[in-house]
Amino acid sequence: MDAGIAALLGATVGSLSTLGAAVVSGRAQARTQHDQWRRQHRRDAYAGYLSALHDRDIAMDAILDALGPDEPDLSDVDEKIRHFVALAREVHRAAEVVVLEGPASLAEVADRVTRASRELSEVMRRMAENAHAGDTTRKAGDTALAADRERILYRAVRDFRLAARGTIGNTN
Questions:
Q1: Contact call for residues 62 and 172 (beta carbons, < 8 A)
Q2: What are phi and psi of 113, to 5 degrees?
Q3: Rounded Cα–Cα distance for residues 160 and 54 (Å)
Q4: Residue 102: its pLDDT value, please?
Q5: Cα(22)–Cα(28) distance, rounded to whole angstroms?
Q6: What is the b/e burial string over 49-74, where b = at least 16 CB atoms within 10 angstroms of the residue's CB?
Q7: N or C, which end of the chain has less CB nearby within 10 Å?
Q8: Phi and psi for 76 in degrees, rounded to 5?
Q9: Segment 122-165, tens digit of pLDDT
Q10: 3-state secondary structure the chain
Q11: pLDDT digits (tens, 9 = 90+) for 14-25
Q12: 116 and 149 in contact (C-beta within 8 Å)?
């Protein structure tokens, strides 16, 4: 084989190798960028959900505090409930984004938060209805039950937060 053909063949092999390496490197970089983009969207969805939960839980605490006195200001309680309901809708919207962004395992944890929240809300609503009816017979029991349900909700939110951190790769 003459030197010219060998040089041409060598240059061709070198060019093809370089091109192959560039394709592999480009794909790896694209995959890394896509993974980062996915993590960011999930992070935003999870942070939005946690923020909505936080706002809604502050509203729940305000209702429970307003129901605390022997004769609560019912118009104040009703206004706080309206505010709570609006915030609960925001939580529901944020939860839908969490379900869409996934993974399914995190949606299951979010569902546990929803159940715990619903159970606490049921106690709060019963307390409000009893306050409107002037019925104080269950107030002490419902107050204790609400505190227990708040602890359960707190644990569910904590579990969601930990699962979300694991999903987006932030385990520190």
A1: no
A2: -65, -45
A3: 13
A4: 84
A5: 10
A6: bbebbebbbebbebbbebbeeeebee
A7: C
A8: -65, -40
A9: 999 999 999 999 999 999 999 999 999 999 999 999 999 999 99
A10: CCHHHHHHHHHHHHHHHHHHHHHHHHHHHHHHHHHHHHHHHHHHHHHHHHHHHHHHHHHHHHHHHHCCCCCCCHHHHHHHHHHHHHHHHHHHHHHHHHHHHCCHHHHHHHHHHHHHHHHHHHHHHHHHHHHHHCCCCCHHHHHHHHHHHHHHHHHHHHHHHHHHHHHCCCCC
A11: 666 666 666 566
A12: yes
Residue keyed to tokens 């269950």: 138
Tokens in use for 169? 């790769």
Q: Extract the tokens encoding 129.
A: 């209805």
What pLDDT is attached to residue 137? 94
> Quick check: 76 and 64 in contact, CB under 8 A?
no
Task: Tell me if the pTM is above 0.90.
Answer: no
User: For tokens 């904590």, what's the residue?
Assistant: 158
pLDDT in tens, 25-59: 666 665 667 567 788 889 999 999 999 999 999 99
